[in-house]
Specification:
0% strand; mainly alpha; single chain
Length: 110
C-alpha cells in the first residue's frame, strides 16, 4: 500500500482556476490601462531659497576623484614610513626580511 507523503501545499503544483493557459503567464496581474499620476513636492520652509543654478559636475575619469587620490596618497605615506620603521628595528632591508638574497651581485661565472 502506498503511503501519502505529508508535504506542505506550497510545494504542490498549482492549477489555474480559469482552465486555460495564457501565453504570458506571470504571477503578477497585468493592467490594460496604465494609470498616470503626478507627484507634488512639499513647499520649502520659510527662509529657505532654492538654488538658482544646478551645479555642473564633471564625471570622474575612471574613478580618479580628488578625494580618492588624497586618501590613496595618505595610505602610501603610512606604508612607506612603516617600512622604514621595520627596517630600522630589524636592521635589515625589506627584501632581506622577505628572504631575497641581496648584495651578491649577479653571481655569473665569467
Amino acid at each position: 500500500m502506498a503511503a501519502i507523503p505529508t508535504i506542505s501545499s506550497t510545494f504542490l503544483p498549482c492549477r489555474s482556476l480559469f482552465g486555460g493557459v495564457s501565453r504570458n503567464s506571470s504571477p503578477l496581474p497585468r493592467f490594460r490601462n496604465p494609470k498616470s499620476f503626478r507627484i507634488r513636492a512639499a513647499k520649502l520652509p520659510a527662509g529657505v531659497e532654492a538654488p538658482k543654478v544646478e551645479p555642473k559636475l564633471t564625471a570622474p575619469f575612471l574613478g580618479f576623484t580628488r578625494t580618492a587620490e588624497v586618501w590613496n596618497s595618505r595610505a602610501c605615506m603610512i606604508g612607506i614610513v612603516g617600512t622604514f620603521i621595520v627596517e630600522l628595528i630589524l636592521n635589515k632591508g625589506i627584501l632581506q626580511i622577505l628572504g631575497v638574497e641581496v648584495g651578491k651581485g649577479l653571481d655569473l661565472p665569467l
